[in-house]
């Protein structure tokens, strides 16, 4: 999931956030609702926002859902732009750098 940090808020690109599907898998829908529960703002028209206070919870959720084997890594890994200075320690285990085009 493409992300950026601005003023201690993590933004997940709105197109990369998991979608809720009433007829979809239980794991995917649970993942959607779990992320939404800790998001500061979760709206399909905007990037989802996660304040620094929930970053440890976010990391634990991403690890847990990633280990389930039901979701691809690209849906449980935070992709920071190469120009990003530093990835916060609370998010390092679930983060990678995305190469510039």
Strand content bin: 15-25%
For the record, give the distance between the C-alpha atoms at the N and C termini, rounded to a whole number. 16 Å
The largest β sheet comes out as: 5 strands, mixed
What is the H/E string? EEHEHEE
Strand order of the largest sheet: 3-2-1-4-5
What number is the mean pLDDT? 92
Give the low-confidence spans: none
What is the molecular shape?
A: globular
Total of domains:
1
Q: Please state the CA-atom Rg, rounded to the nearest Å.
A: 13 Å
Give the structural class: alpha/beta
Estimate percent helicity. Answer: 25-40%
Q: Quick one: how many beta strands? A: 5
Per DSSP, the total helix count is 2
Commentary on this structure:
The protein has helices at 26-38, 55-67; strands at 2-6, 9-12, 48-51, 78-81, 95-98. By secondary structure, it is α/β, with parallel strands linked by helices. The protein has one domain (2-98). A five-stranded mixed β-sheet has the order 3-2-1-4-5, with no helix packed on it. α1 (26-38) packs antiparallel against α2. The two termini are 16 Å apart.
Features:
101 residues, alpha/beta, 5-stranded mixed β-sheet, 2 helices, 5 strands
